[in-house]
Predict the 3D structure of the following.
Amino acid sequence: MKTGFSVFLATFVALGASWCGFVLAPVLQLGGAKQTVILQTTDNWPLQRPGEATLGLQIYRANGCAACHTEQVRQTGVAFNLIVTSAGKNPDAVLKAISESEPNQSKYTEHVIGFPGVIFVGISKEQADATSDKITAAGGKVETDLTATGADIARGWGSRQCVAADYLYDQPVQLGSLRAGPDLSNIGVRAPDLNWQLRHLYAPKSVTPDSTMPSFKFLFEVRKIGDTPSPDALELPLEFAAADGYEIVPKPEAKQLAAYLLTLKANAPLYEAPFTPLTTAK
Amino acid sequence: MMSDENKSCSTPSSGEPTTTRSTAPMWIIVLTLVLLFVGGIYFDRHSGWFDAKVYAPYASAETLDAYQPQSGAAAVLAHGKKTYEAVCGICHGVDGLGKPGQAPPLAGSEWVNAKKFNRLAHIPLMGLAGSIQVAGKDWGLNMAAMGAALPDDDLAAVLTYIRNSWGNKAGEVIGDDIKKIRAQIGGNAQPMSADQLMKMPE
């Protein structure tokens, strides 16, 4: 076989190129990932999970939760909201500046009468910069809020896309690829109640009637109520509750899984995924 | 030609068929080059140059920088830059290097990099007449009171910007400082000379 060396070389190059693409490049890019800092604060992100939640990740993995749930919020764009916080000494000039500004003609405008008020919603960076310059020149004070856009954001699954930093302490990362259920990147923000999580694991339909999620009853123990009822016993609607004289108590696995779910929060503004977090009205 | 080749492979008389080298057709080469070109354009637009911090929809690190919420020092510098480029940059240059025959440089200028900014602030507020020594060169040019019409905060942002750009590393100027200096000047709107400036506190 006189072409043997050529075949070997071609195979080597093909496999080597894919190794470079799938192994070497990601390691060079993200292999040295470290904790990062939340925008405009000195707080670190992400924080190491407590021990129970770290064990919970393995329960999540063992029960194949990632088969139906993803942990990745996607984002397709960015948009700005413009808020006039103060009209200054000359509100008429500010009103004139607003009515003359470009986004006023677009379909995304939203007029609010009186200040402070949200003037424009969902405008581009160029429009936001130009308009805020005009209003500032007229003596008003303007704040621009940066928001993420996209189908996942519209579903309320997060305020920004997930980035590599969010998964720093996930071993292994449970990205998931199929969404039979909702994305769980921010389930700890949406459902921060431990008892809700446990009830949902035991009988999903008891908290969300339309749920198609299977019950994870084997993570719970149904036992006779002893001298003193367990403080952990689930409080369920009648149709899901145990028979009289029995109580439903979560096993350690259920508690660990719920603790893990409560730590799923990808909601801090980061350099790579900036947004303006909601703050209480001043 | 084609039929000859087929014949030579199929007829037993010519012996075992052998592999031969043949040139790749031109259209494959052209197609490959076109695909590489399109791929290069796509790569340029969407790769973010493999920056670990750059994710879609941000195209590059520069875009991502531009979208960072600005507050505090960064916002002041950004505002100062914008004002400087509109008001001062025409003569002093957007690179702060000045223009011969028009204006002295601000980058590396001892007037800009002074510990305090009292003399510096007087120049845009009152204007300058006569010769002035900047970075070892004599500039015999006049400057109008370009900053007199700017609001305190804007002028402060400009001064902060020129004191912290192009290698300059001096302190921050805030609006209240400008207000105080403006109050000292009062109605006296005569352009200063370099000698008069030197007599003032730094």
Notes: The first strand of chain B starts at residue 131 and ends at 134. Residues 1-10 of chain B have pLDDT under 50 and may be disordered. Chain B is about 45% helix and 5% strand.
